[in-house]
Amino acid sequence: MDVLTWDLGTTHLGTQVKTPPHILGGPFIFKIVTDNTAVGGWRSALNVLSGEAGLYLLKGSPPTTASYHSASSRAGSDGWVLHTSQSNASEEWYYLVEATAGATWNLVSGEPFVSDLGVLPGPAAAGTTNVTLGAEGWRFFRTTPPSGTLAWEIWLNGAANSILLKKNFIPLTGFAEQGQARAMLVVPDYLEADATTFVGVPGDPGQALSLTSKQQPVTDIPFNFTTNSVAVSGFPYRTYRVAVPINQIAWEIRAASVAGDPNLAARRGEVPNEWDNDAFADVPGNIKDSFTLVPPWLSDGTFYITVYSAGSHPYNLRNGEPTVTPRVFIGTTTNDAPARAGWRYYALTNVAEQIGYLGWELDLSNHLADTEIALRRNAVPGRWNYRSGGSTYANAGAVDYSGTGGFLQRPGHQADIWYIGIYQPATNLGAFRLTTRAIPTPAVAFNNGGVVNVASHPTNAWRYTKCGHECYY
User: Fold this and answer.
1) Would you say the CATH fold of 324-438 matches that of 2-110?
2) Does the pLDDT of residue 457 top 90, yes or no?
3) Phi and psi torsions of 380, nearest 5°
4) Which of 120, 290, 410, 431 could form a disulfide bond with 360, CB atoms 3.0-4.6 angstroms apart?
5) Which of 326, 248, 255 is closest to 294 using CA atoms?
């Protein structure tokens, strides 16, 4: 039995390195007494230089290949990193190295090595660090976002490994605060100025890794503006800043795919990502993603828009006032934007033509299931989905009356300026037809055994009939 010295983690390959006492192969037993960890973990790294060897660990007594706490016997180098909760200082643990004859290797045990990236560099910096994953199957980094950082770009330059984050200590699988594969845009509230944050990337020992870590660039664009043919390669997030002027009845944001599947998120005062935002749209495929924000939530101020996707996704981005088409009280309209998800709006501004009717009925045909008809008096209706703190989603909005059964009835309709919204967040709106009319009231003879036969009647809809003495059913 040989004794290991706890490594302080000052270098990637370690400074307290144990090599085999001979090259005859067979089992080798090593003892180590654990020490305190400053970064919240304990690494075990068996660097196999030639031949083959496996590594086993057990507390209190030597392990075997059948009895152990942790083990790694993959081809090549072996190792792992334990969380600080899985051991304590001053405990006796034992390693078994099971090596083939002629194998050469070295063993390091102790504090995990962390690459110190210093203060998070600005948006114009390259911010790229090239490393190789160690025998423990991890690389760790730490950085500190300075004051004024709007968002933090982390990208593996095409590698599909997971990216894990944790403040003050190294993140490990099952012990991380945030995580995502390939790339991440880190935003407030998790992003904090002057808070040291650790990045962990797991993978196969020996894998070359190129990590980009820097502040996210933000592009200023005006309100009521279209940005065409934005080419996206590399980091798959683009962020924009928009000053929304006062007295806007609605603000629509939409992304049309040139290729790929661009998604949208928006947020007041802070940069959004797909998990923290005030509104988002991520309809799959090449459907035009869009959402519309309305008062009282919408007001003047600085807003941020992020366009994101899993891969390359050139797009056209439009932000500004939504299209609101005038229409009459009684008539039929066919949707002229069938490829879009989100809202299509119409305005009824002729108050006089609404007078003299008992009610108003709005019907949809050629529409998709769960398409919503919404009304709002003297204001544009709105409804949108949002995520907070990584939640699945929640929704917000402002409507006066709505229905998702393909129709909406308003008995006793009051003449005024009304806005109609047709809403479909899950897919494209399609070429729906909107028909509006006075609620029909077929006449029934009074005291004459009159019968009205109804061929089809929507669930939960009203049916009105009129008798000879101006009474209604």
Assistant:
1) yes
2) no
3) -75, 130
4) 410
5) 248
For the domain covering 324-438, report its CATH number: 2.60.120
Residue that the structure tokens 């592009």 belong to: 219
Tracing tokens 């108050």 back to the chain, one arrives at: 351
Strand-pair partners of 230: 315
pLDDT of residue 78: 98
Cα separation, 110 vs 81, whole angstroms: 9
- Separation between Cα atoms, residue 328 and residue 319, nearest integer Å: 28
- DSSP label at 439? P
b/e map 359-388, b = 16+ CB within 10 Å:
bbbbbbeebeeebbbbbbeebbbbbbbbbe
Q: How far apart are the first and last CA of the chain?
A: 96
Q: Higher-confidence residue: 195 or 471?
A: 195
Residue-by-residue DSSP string for 194-234: T--EEEEEE--TT-EEEEEEEEPPEEE--SSEEEEEE---S
pTM of the model: 0.88
Pick one of 1.10.600.10, 3.40.250.10, 2.30.29.30, 2.60.120.380 as the CATH number of 2-110: 2.60.120.380
Q: CA distances (Å), 57 to each of 49, 153, 176, 301, 341, in order? A: 20, 37, 24, 58, 55
Q: Which two tokens stand for residue 340?
A: 């879009």
Q: 342: exposed, middle or buried (C-beta count within 10 Å: 0-12, 13-18, 19+)?
A: buried
Residue 397 corresponds to which tokens in the numbers above? 């909005």
Give tens-digit pLDDT for 234-282. Answer: 899 999 999 999 999 999 999 988 888 899 999 999 999 999 999 999 9
Q: Are 207 and 173 in contact (CB under 8 A)?
A: no
Q: What is the CATH number of domain 115-215?
A: 2.60.120.380
Q: Which residues pair with 128 in a beta bridge?
A: 212
